[in-house]
Every structure is written in C-alpha cells, then in structure tokens.
Amino acid sequence: MPSLPATTGAVVPVARTVRPTGVERSFGPDDVIVTKTDLKGRITYANDVFCRVSAIAEPDLLGRPHSVIRHPGMPKAVFQLLWDTIRSRQELFAYVVNLAGDGAHYWVLAHVTPSIGPDGEVVGYHSNRRLPSPRAVREIEPLYRDLVAEERGHARSSDAARAGRELLQQVLADRGTTYDRLVWSLATGAAA
Amino acid sequence: MSRVLRLRREPQHDEAEVYREVVAQWLAVCRAAASGDLEARAMAVPGSEHLADVTALRSALNLLLDRTDAYVRESAASLEAASDERFHRQFLLNGMSSSFRTGAGTINRAGAHMAEARRGLDAAAGERHQLADRLEDTVMSVAEQVAAASTELGATAAGLSDSAHHAVGEADAASTTGARLTEAAQEIQDVVRVISQIAAQTQLLALNATIEAARAGDAGRGFAVVATEVKQLADTTATSAERVVAQVQTMQEVVSASTGAMGSVGGTVREMSPMVDAVRTAVDGQVRGDADVLEAPAQGLAHLAELLREEVGTFLAVMRERG
Ligand SMILES: Cc1cc2nc3c(=O)[nH]c(=O)nc-3n(C[C@H](O)[C@H](O)[C@H](O)COP(=O)(O)O)c2cc1C
After folding, report:
1. What are the DSSP calls for A84-152, one per residue?
2. Does residue B280 sit within a domain?
3. Is residue B39 part of a domain?
4. CB pairs below 8 Å between A and B: how many?
5. What domain range includes position A90?
6. What are phi and psi of A98, to 5 degrees?
7. How many domains does chain A have?
8. Structural domain boundaries, residue B77
C-alpha cells in the first residue's frame, strides 16, 4: 500500500461546487486513467492521466472520496451495482460519465476490481478507465437519463436508489441481458 | 530554476536530500513490485515537484507499474471469465503496448478458441439431443407396436391353443366312433353270412319241394305254388344280403378312411400344440403351471417391450445429461 505523503495531509479539502459546463472532454485511445482507493473509496493513488483529464491536481485528490468527480448525470443504481459487485470480490465493467474540476465531463469505460493482498484479503480497490466508443456512449446515455429521472422522483436517497435499481433490472430483463453483457456488447459491437 | 524562487520556497529542501529521499522511497516501491506487490506506487516526494527528471521518472515508474498491474488484473480476470465460459469478456487492448499487447492478444485468441470449442460442444450436444429425441420416438413407437402386437398375438395364440386342444379331442372321439362302427359292421357281416346260408338252404329246400310237388301231380299243385313262393323269398333274401354286404363294405372303407384322416389331423394338431404354447410363452411370459420355467420366470414379449422402453429411457437420460 502506498503511504500518503505528508503533504496531502496539509491539503484543505475544498468543498467542490463544480457546475457542469456541458463541454465534453476526450482523451487518447491508448490512455488509461488509473486510480486506487482504500476500502471506503477514498483515493490513494491517481495517475498523471487522471490528473490531466479530471483537471484536478494530485494533492487535491489524495485522501478524497472518489465521488469528487461524480457527475449528476450518473444514476445511483450504477454505483450501487459497482459497490455490490466489488464488495463480492468480482470485477465490474461500467460506462461512467465523470465531472472534471473545470466543469467539463468525460465518458469512460471503467474496469473496477478489488485489490487482493498477500493473505487473500481485499486491501483496496482499483480502477482502469479507457476511452469508450462514441456509439457506446450514444446507446448508454438515454438509459442513464431514464434512470436518473426515475431516481429524482424520490425524496429519500434510499428510495431513489431502490427505484433506480428496479428500473435498471427491469430494462435489462426486457432486453434479455445483464449489465455486464450490455456493457460488453457496446464495447465490442456485438449483440448483447 | 532561479535562486530567488528557491529561496522563497517553504519549507526549504536541500536538493541532494530530496534526491536521496526519492531514491529511498522509490527503491522501496521497486522492491515491493519485484516481490509481487503491485499496489505500491511512487508517490510525490516533497520538494521534488520542480525537478523535471524526478517527475518524469515518477511518471515512467508509475506507468510501468500501472501497465503491469493492469496486465496482471486483466489476464487473471479474462482467463477466469473464459474458464467460466463468459466469453464476451475480453482482454481490453487499449493502453497495452508491444509485449503487453502481444500477451493480451494471445489470451484473447485462446479465449476465442475456447469459445469456438464450446460452440462445437454445444452443437454436438444439440445433435446428440436430436438423436436422442429420434431414438426415443422410434423406440417408443416400436415398443408400443410390440406391446399391441403381443396383446393380439397372445389372444390369438390362446384361442389357437384352445382350438387345438379341442380338435385333438374331436379327432380322438372320431377315431373311437370309427372303431365302434367297424365292430358293428363286422357283426352285421356275421349276421348277413348266417342269413345268406339260411337263404341258400331255403333255395335248396324249395327246389326239392318243387320236384316233389311235380311228382305228386295235381295233388301237389298247391304245394308247388308254395315252393315257388319260398324260392323267390330265398332269392330275394340272398340278393338283399349281398347288397347289405356290399354296402357295409363300402361304409367300412369310408369309416376307415375317415378314421385315418382324423388320426392324422389329431397327430398334426398334437404336434402343433406345443408350438402354440411356445408362442404363448414368448408373448405372455411363462405359462402357468409350467414347472420347468418357474425358477427363472420367462419374460414375455410385452414385458420385454416395457423393459426396452425403460432401458432406453435410462440411456437417453444419460445421453441428454452430458451437456
Ligand atoms: C476504485 C473505484 C473507482 C471509482 N471511480 C469512480 C469514478 O470514476 N467516478 C465516480 O463518480 N465514482 C467512482 N467511484 C464510486 C464512488 O466511490 C462513489 O460511489 C460514487 O461517486 C457515487 O457517489 P455518491 O454515493 O456520493 O453519490 C469509484 C469507486 C471505486 C471503489
């Protein structure tokens, strides 16, 4: 485990109130955006690509929760699926839209995995993100819009999450697929 | 870097000190990675931010670690997915360069081969299921037909066996009747022979009486008439007796011929009887009261058809079970 350098402790965690500008950012097809988190999802490592694309300096990231780049267009249901999956020691592939520090947004195809320690225990989480195809983004955007709309209709956060999850499950069942298969069908251009 | 800037930096870092710290920290990271701990990363060392070579080294070192880490995670996960037959999950090649990419490609090809092998197995299994369905159809219909045929055959054989036993009885009765008729004919012949002898004697007596009557002249005329009547009666008796003998003979021939025929029918039917019984045994299983087969109960055709159906059912279950 990387130990956080002393300097990060001095960083004042600024409460970010970044407003989405609607500007879409892209990155290189061979760029991989990497972060590692502790068991609670606090960032312990971010590579230079992450800092560049998210427009956040490394000292402002380390020790902060990963929701630092959460975009309002992301359904809670997807993050719930993320946590359920990695907590059961499985890998997850997901399309995620992130909010950069300067208000721009960028879509990624995220691969989130638990990091297994020498004794077989989960010591943290890891994510590699790659550039998704524009077609995949076009396909996933309306689904996420519907899920977010469903979730916004509920005052309580837990109700919202449940409603979103139910709608997601229903949509996937109607299409006769799973989230994983859907993501892969969009990633490889094959039928779900 | 201007001196002024460096003097303003808070806190102050001795450059040599910073380099030493960088080497110490990142050496530990390299050692951890070499020992298989791919979680360690080169973190920023305070005071090194402005040292271009140090930042470049850190980026390069972390890129190496990130790629190796990604490769290990991806290869493990994609192989696991392939062994779980989740063939849609591939090794993502983006960000994998040269030998990493080659390795990733190899893993993907292996996955594709496995997927193809699985498709082949599925196709074979599909064929096997079709084959099983066809076999089942055939066997079931054969078994059904055999069962139906055996029921009919059993009934026919039972009827045949009954008629055969009946025919044997009839033939036996017929030959008994024939024997009795022959005896009766013999007696008739004996009686007729006596009658013929009497008729012949009577004829002789009548002849003598006629001669005596003629010698008596007119006085014997009445007696002559009686003698003539007696002779005619004797002649008629003799002729009738002959006819009776002839008829009895004819009858006897007919009776003996029919007795012979009945006898051979009886023989044939008697020979046939065990064959019919054998058919019955084959169809119904052991015939009740057949002591020889009691130990190992013979299985009839209908039972065998049922057995075949069961056996094939088990076979098909195994055949379908295999994927
Ligand atoms: C390894 C890892 C990587 C993550 N990456 C992201 C990310 O890129 N963007 C994001 O919004 N959330 C990410 N999350 C999920 C966040 O932890 C969090 O659940 C999410 O942002 C939702 O935040 P909220 O529950 O405060 O709404 C990641 C979590 C883990 C464990």
Report:
1. HHHHTT--EEEEEEEE-TTS-EEEEEEEEEEEE-TTS-EEEEEEEEEPPPHHHHHHHHHHHHHHHHHHH
2. yes
3. yes
4. 77
5. 33-188
6. -115, 155
7. 1
8. 2-89
A7 and B44 within 8 Å at the Cβ level: the answer is yes
Residues 6+ apart with CB under 8 A from A53: A25, A27, A31, A33, A100, A106
pLDDT at B297: 45
Percent of chain A with pLDDT over 90: 84
Pocket test for ligand 1, best of A42, A70, A89 (most atoms within 8 A of CB): A70
B21 touches chain A (CB under 8 A): no
Å from B107 to nearest chain A CA? 16
**pLDDT surpassing 60 at residue A16:** no
A156 CA: distance to closest CA in chain B (Å): 36
Say if residue B11's pLDDT is above 70: no
Burial code (b: 16+ CB inside 10 Å, e: under 16) for B215-246 equals eeeeebeeebeebeebbeebeebbeebeebbe
The segment with the largest mean pLDDT, out of A28-32, A50-54, B102-106, is A50-54
Beta pairing partners, A45: A36
Angstrom CA distances, B48 to A7, B57, B202, B225, stand at 12, 11, 174, 184
Q: Whose CA is nearest to atom 13 of ligand 1?
A: A66
Q: What is the ipTM of this complex?
A: 0.86
* Minimal C-alpha gap between A128 and chain B (Å): 7
pLDDT at B3: 44
- B123 lies in a domain? no
Residue A144: CATH number of its domain:
3.30.450.20
Is A37 part of a structural domain of the chain?
yes
Would you say the pTM of this structure is higher than 0.95? no
**Residue A111 sits at the chain B interface (C-beta within 8 Å):** yes
Tell me: pLDDT of A10 over 80: no
Q: Please check whether residues B55 and B149 belong to one and the same domain.
A: no
Q: Would you state the pLDDT for residue A101?
A: 95
Strand A43-46 and strand A92-99: the pairing is: unpaired
Q: Which 114-153 residues of chain A touch chain B by CB within 8 A?
A: 115, 117-118, 123-124, 126, 128, 130-131
B94:A130 CB<8 A:
yes
